[in-house]
Amino acid sequence: MEEALQVAAHYIALSLEALALLVVAIGAVEAAIGIFRAMVRHASNAAKRSVWLDFARGLVAGLTFQLAADVVATTVAPSWDQIGRVAAIAAIRTFLTFFLDRDIELEYRRAG
């Protein structure tokens, strides 16, 4: 039973890691297109900042999926290395989310 749980956790974690990669890749492509459009159109700083905020949201979403993958991977006999990895990703995600939320709030104040 434990072996079946380990196999299931492995595949679930692998799927979540693939999803994290996909989310970040899509966000990066969208950001590259957005920056290109902003440069061609000589967009305002607010428009450029919007592209950045959208990309940052994608990064946070990707990190969230990565954190979920690491949590799943460490559910069965975690090593100290795995626990450290989960802690590092959680800290990075918390740090990015805090500053992203602050930037979004500042942007709303500027616009409204």
Task: Quickly list its features.
mainly alpha; elongated; about 110 residues; about 90% helix
Describe the structure.
The chain is mainly α and 112 residues long. The chain is 89% helix and 0% strand. Helix 1 packs antiparallel against helix 2 and helix 2 runs antiparallel to helix 3. The mean pLDDT is 88.
Shape summary: elongated
**Can you give the mean pLDDT?**
88
Low-confidence stretches: none
| Number of H- or I-type helical stretches | 3
Instruction: Quickly give the structural class.
Output: mainly alpha
Q: Report the strand count.
A: 0
Proportion of beta-strand residues: under 5%
Radius of gyration from the CA trace?
18 Å
Distance between the termini: 57 Å
How would a textbook summarize the main sheet? none
Element-level helix/strand string: HHH
Proportion in helices: over 70%
Indicate the topology.
Layout lengths: L1 H39 L4 H29 L6 H32 L1
Helix pairs in contact: 1-2, 2-3
Please provide a brief summary of the model:
The protein is mainly α and 112 residues long. Helix content is 89%, strand content 0%.
